[in-house]
Specification:
It is built from 7 helices and 6 strands, in the order βββααβααααββα. Strands 1-2-3-4 form a 4-stranded mixed β-sheet. The protein has a two-stranded antiparallel sheet with strand order 5-6. It folds into 2 domains: 82 residues, no CATH class; 74 residues, Orthogonal Bundle (Arc Repressor Mutant, subunit A), CATH 1.10.10.10. It is 38% helix and 16% strand. By secondary structure, it is an alpha+beta fold. Strand 2 and strand 3 form a beta hairpin. The structure holds zinc ion (ZN). The site of zinc ion has 9 residues, from loops.
Length: 166
Amino acid sequence: MGSSGNATPPICPLCKQPPEILRRATDGSVTLQVSCERCGRFSISDQALADLTSENRYLLSAASRLWTGERRPLILTTNIRELVEQVPKFTVSDQLDALLQLVADRSPELGSASTFDSNRDYPLLVARNVGEATYFANGLAKRGFINTIGSRLAVTLEGWERLSAI
Ligand SMILES: [Zn+2]
């Protein structure tokens, strides 16, 4: 593309949006270390970058964001399948319930806005992108389980009742 040099902003290989940090590992391994507010912290080998597809990218993003291990996950060609298989197999209704639960978990008190942010937190639902998360949020709103306060989501009384019945 010519000589734009370092003008190209870094792109997270999983969500394809700007990460907070993306750097070469300094330990001599051929890996990238990424910190992304959507995908969390992970490392990925150059070889594994070539194995990313539209089908495994969002699942790896979810796997990384949901990761609870002490050290960040290292994505390799040899463990992509294993990482993808760790991701919960949510049905659409599971995703709706998961979203309601997440919005509730991040609500400081009843009736107040949640800190859940679809733009940042959609991988927690194993959604492909913010568009899918918004679609689920609209579905919950239509059922009366959440509403919006400004640009934030909030659980309604009906939503809290629904959660106590799950
Ligand atoms: Zn990302």
